[in-house]
Design goal:
Chain lengths: 253, 245
């Protein structure tokens, strides 16, 4: 009974804030007579959303596709590299400093270069997205693959286990909680990466829509676009979150 | 039969040499229960790991039925239980117990039988998170026995448990050891635990550890907790305590 109550409360409170937020928006715009170009009232944004829904959904879809593909590419490469690091300290020495250097480079500084190399289409955005998703997964996976209790490694050695057996039976499952922590971070970052890529040069995607809307001072359309892409990002995050709960079931509570 | 002859261990760093073990020689016959006791940090665990071939000695010889520790290890002679039960959180109890079988490709006892032996029938489907410390350690013992090892090597297995659970597990361990034919080498820093369990106790000195004395424990088996109240028992405990002080 109490559990049900707390669950309902957990939904009601954020929904109330949302409604309040919208109401305040409407009142502020009305009272201070703010122009639609600066801050459109919530109902104007909703209208923009309804009037342009086809373009908006299509372009949000394109950006989300870029994000998800980039996320998958970046995480996959990072995880494989992390396994390589575990096998060979030399690979780690050779690559890790440059991975850190890459992390410290502002992604927006590389964006024009990526457009130059991979063109104006989806590819450059996928690479951009992959680059931002890459680093958190690399660091966390190395951590998860290597932080094994010494007694557990001793136990495996006493059974004459091979390195491969230790990898599959111990290291990989042990790395999953860390991996998912990283994937949650990367899922949101990858959307940022894709949008930055679209700002730099694109003829499709939500970043492109926002850019053009800004050019024509269609602030209501900009808000609608921002709303949809953040919704996409949230859904992506919660999907990873759901996967984590199912796969890393032993870390709950 | 395990034979150690003049086993030494020296740790070398660039600038320094630390002698951990010096001239350790003793034998363990089949099915014997041996405890190793000594001041903390004296190298008890190192000695156990050398016998189980997790660490190689710097000098001396070790034979297990005429084989080297490395050969014995690859044949699945050894089984370890540590103070930390190190169960895999993502596997059920039964799957945890099966882990050694998956690696050695050798199974002589079923998980259910082993769980019954350690007094945990019917919990095979649970996950380690759902178990208490004492239960986890029992599962670790069950896991250690699934392929009928020749030698069970235990490194302070009950060191993290409260006294009540420890006594219970001591009695249970003796029961299990009595049922199956296994030599047991048991590292502990509890003197009364060593006296209660063992056929013989190897008392080590401070670093570099040498054998101070090997004490034979005269009590008949099966042993009950109440032998701890006898004067002979306390006599032995006192004798060992004096050596360690």
């Amino acid at each position: 009974m109490d559990k049900k109550k707390t669950r309902i409360i957990r939904i009601i409170i954020p929904v109330t804030t949302f409604i309040l937020f919208i109401l305040i928006g409407e009142i502020v715009v009305k009272v201070f007579n703010i122009s639609t170009i600066t801050l459109p009232a919530p109902h104007v944004i909703v209208l923009a959303l309804i009037n342009n829904w086809q373009t908006l959904i299509l372009n949000t879809g394109i950006t989300m596709l870029e994000s998800v593909l980039g996320f998958l590419l970046g995480s996959l490469v990072a995880y494989c590299l992390a396994i390589g690091f575990v096998y060979s300290p030399n690979i780690r020495l050779a690559i890790y400093p440059y991975a850190v250097a890459l992390k410290s480079t502002p992604i927006i500084a590389i964006a024009p270069l990526l457009i130059l190399w991979f063109g104006n289409g989806l590819e450059s955005k996928i690479v951009m997205s992959a680059l931002v998703a890459f680093f958190p997964v690399l660091v966390n996976s190395v951590d998860g693959l290597t932080s094994i209790e010494t007694e557990l490694i001793d136990l495996m050695k006493s059974l004459a286990a091979t390195r491969r057996q230790i990898l599959y039976k111990i290291r990989i499952p042990n790395s999953l909680p860390n991996l998912f922590t990283a994937l949650k971070i990367s899922s949101t970052l990858s959307v940022v990466g894709a949008v930055i890529g679209e700002f730099t040069g694109a003829s499709k995607g939500i970043g492109y829509v926002i850019n053009t809307a800004s050019y024509y001072l269609n602030t209501d359309l900009m808000f609608a676009a921002i709303f949809l892409i953040s919704l996409g990002g949230i859904l992506f995050f919660y999907f990873i979150n759901y996967m984590e709960r199912t796969i890393v079931f032993w870390k709950q509570n | 039969m395990i034979v150690l002859k003049n086993v030494t261990k020296t740790y070398k760093t660039l600038t320094d040499k630390t002698e951990a073990l010096r001239d350790i020689s003793f034998g363990v016959s089949d099915g014997e229960f041996i405890s190793i006791i000594g001041p903390s940090g004296c190298g008890k665990s190192t000695l156990l790991r050398i016998i189980g071939s997790l660490i190689s000695p710097s000098g001396g010889e070790i034979h297990i039925d005429g084989l080297t520790p490395i050969q014995s290890r690859s044949l699945g002679f050894f089984s370890f239980v540590f103070q930390n039960p190190v169960l895999l959180d993502w596997r059920t109890v039964t799957e945890n117990i099966r882990l050694p079988n998956e690696i050695l490709k050798k199974q002589t006892r079923q998980p259910e039988e082993l769980l019954k032996m350690v007094g945990l029938e019917g919990i095979g489907h649970k996950y380690p998170n759902e178990l208490s410390g004492g239960m986890k350690q029992r599962v670790a013992i069950a896991r250690a026995l699934t392929f009928d090892p020749k030698i069970l090597l235990m490194d302070e297995p009950f060191g993290a448990l409260d006294e009540f659970t420890r006594n219970e597990l001591n009695s249970q361990l003796l029961g299990i050891w009595n049922q199956i034919n296994v030599s047991l080498i048991f590292v502990t820093h509890s003197i009364s635990e060593a006296v209660f369990l063992s056929d013989r106790i190897i008392v080590l000195t401070n670093r570099p550890a040498t054998i101070d004395e090997i004490i034979k424990v005269p009590f008949d088996r099966p042993r009950k907790q109440k032998i701890k109240d006898t004067p002979e028992f306390n006599e032995i405990v006192k004798w060992i305590r004096k050596k360690l002080e």
